[in-house]
Specification:
The complex is a heterodimer of chains A (94) and B (435). In chain A, strands 1-2-4-3 form a four-stranded mixed β-sheet. Chain A contains three helices and four strands. In chain A, helix 1 (16-26) links the parallel strand 1 and strand 2 (33-38). Chain A has helices spanning 16-26, 45-51, 76-87, and strands at 4-8, 33-38, 54-60, 66-72. The A-B interface holds A 11-15, 18-23, 26-27, 39-40, 43-44, 47-48, 51-52 and B 1-6, 8-10, 76-77, 208-210, 212, 215, 273-274, 336, 339-340, 343, 364.
Chain lengths: 94, 435
């Protein structure tokens, strides 16, 4: 999927998951969203995303405990892409 | 590219830093008192010098760093806002500092008035902290086991402080009966309740977070703390009903809980996902070995008619378990705080258009160099082994153990102070625009 940027921070020590996610989010192009994989609910991420005008959705992951989708507030194309993923039932990994 | 970070709920740097930097001062003070008084101070567990050293360590080092860590961790881990953090941390820290110093000096100098100052200061400090922290914890929507354990730890601190005040009354007022039989209860609630439960509460969050391990089994997270608290209650009931079976049950339950926690932590660390060397890992492993030894030695003596070796258990639980854990955590907390606050300062400057270029915030692992921490760990480990031997053969090992204890605490103070100095130097760079 061309609009998806995958970022797996599930084996990184704080503060790397936070900084890498914010850096990756800041470099998102129109139509792109970030799919962040983590082993736990992230600390301090959501407040920072709010301040920097990003939207996000967290859900239980399949390959990691937590998945977070992040996109720019005004980016309708990315928002729709994320919504279609969220609406699709999660398939168990094979 | 650098990440823009805001502090969110994190309090100002001075809030936890003042506590963390004060802790090794008391560790050093305790070590110097030992060096000054020599092995005779270990002739009995009731010597004034030993009581002074014990309280410099439990109040000045442990309570000091644990209160500071809680002021930082409660907002970050549970999203709680601490009201007027600089004001509250200022009064709590000042009164704890005064109370810990006065209590130690009261024993060393045998001045009754100092006991009164110590009691008033410590009562004030703990009351303000307990009320503030408990009110916040009760209101937070988080239902993580950490919240419950922190509340139980605060309750244990209240009981420890209450018993401590009662015991201290007998030192300050000759008319007040000396209730030494309550001392073991004061120790149990303090070291296993307040210190032990708080370390568990923090471990449940920070070990999976920083050591990249699996989470603790949910059943342990939910039950272990309550079982320890329950065992401490049954232990307290022995004062009213001195039944041998009740004592045996309490000791057995405590030992099982402590061993379960130690072995689970050890297993999680052993099976961590990222097998990279890490300084804090050494401290956690040493702390868990000490905790397991404490439980095994304590339990074996409770099944025999022999008196438990109070000094040996004291060394293992205070120095080996509690101080080791706190010392290791300081190497995560202090660099993280400095990195966080410098990153946030960066963002504030950019948001206010005071500059457009990036300031280089040092990597967390560079704030306290790994080698400096490792040398301090070696000194700490050596001092623990020698203090353990001192408890058995004081005349042989007292001075080498104490000298190494002085070195370990001085190195810790140096490492933490250097980190704070680096933070201040960076802030000065920001202010002068030299970046």
């Amino acid at each position: 999927m061309s609009g998806e940027i995958l970022l797996d921070v599930s084996e990184l020590e704080p503060p790397e998951p936070l900084t890498l996610t914010l850096e990756s989010a800041a470099s998102l192009q129109p139509g792109q969203y970030l799919r962040m994989l983590h082993r736990r609910e992230p600390c301090m991420l959501y407040g920072n995303l709010d301040e920097q005008h990003f939207k996000y959705i967290q859900r239980k992951g399949t390959v990691s405990a937590v998945e977070v989708f992040i996109w720019r507030e005004q980016d309708q194309e990315a928002a729709s892409a994320v919504q279609s993923i969220i609406d699709t039932p999660i398939e168990a990994p094979t | 590219m650098h990440a823009d970070l805001s502090l969110q709920q994190s309090p100002p740097f001075s809030v936890p830093a003042r506590f963390l930097i004060s802790a090794p001062l008391f560790g050093l003070l305790a070590a110097l008192v030992m060096l000054w008084h020599g092995p005779e101070m270990l002739s009995s567990r009731w010597t004034s010098e030993l009581l002074a050293v014990t309280h410099f360590l439990t109040l000045g080092f442990l309570a000091m760093s644990m209160l500071g860590a809680m002021m930082q961790l409660m907002p970050v881990l549970m999203g709680m806002m601490i009201p007027r953090p600089v004001f509250f941390s200022g009064i709590i820290h000042a009164s704890l500092f005064l109370g810990s110093t006065s209590l130690g000096l009261a024993w060393l100098l045998q001045i009754n008035a100092l006991f009164m100052i110590a009691m008033a200061s410590l009562l004030f400090s703990f009351s303000v902290f307990i009320v503030m922290a408990a009110e916040r914890l009760l209101r937070t929507p988080s239902r993580h086991a950490t919240r419950t354990l922190m509340l139980l730890a605060l309750l244990s601190l209240s009981i420890t402080a209450g018993l401590g005040l009662y015991l201290a009354m007998s030192y300050s007022d000759a008319a007040f009966p000396l209730a030494r039989k309550l001392t073991d209860l004061h120790l149990s609630w303090g070291l296993l309740g307040w210190v032990g439960l708080l370390i568990m509460a923090v471990a449940y969050q920070v070990i999976p977070m920083f050591q990249i391990t699996n989470p603790y089994p949910l059943i342990l997270q939910r039950s272990l703390g309550w079982l320890i608290f329950f065992a401490l209650i049954t232990l307290s009931l022995i004062q009213i009903w001195p039944l041998a079976i009740l004592k045996m049950f309490s000791h057995l339950l405590l030992a099982i809980c402590l061993l379960t926690f130690a072995f689970t932590t050890f297993w999680l660390l052993h099976t961590r996902r990222r097998q990279l060397p890490d300084l804090t890992l050494n401290f956690w492993r040493l702390a868990m070995i000490s905790l397991a030894l404490t439980a095994l030695i304590g339990l074996s003596f409770s099944f025999s008619a022999m008196k438990p070796p109070a000094l040996l258990l004291g060394v293992l639980v205070i120095h080996g378990f509690a101080m080791t854990t706190v010392n290791g955590m300081m190497y995560k907390i202090m660099p993280f705080l400095i990195w966080l606050h410098l990153s946030s300062h960066n963002k504030t400057l950019r948001d206010s258009n005071q500059r457009t270029s990036q300031v280089k915030v040092p990597h967390m692992r560079k704030i306290i160099p790994e080698a400096a921490g490792l040398w301090q760990f070696r000194a700490h480990l050596a001092s623990l082994i020698l203090l353990f031997l001192t408890a058995l053969w004081p005349q042989w090992f007292f001075y080498p153990a104490t000298v190494l204890f002085v070195i370990a605490q001085a190195l810790l103070l140096f490492n933490l102070s250097s980190a704070v100095h680096l933070y201040r130097a960076k802030l000065a760079e920001f202010a002068s625009g030299q970046f």
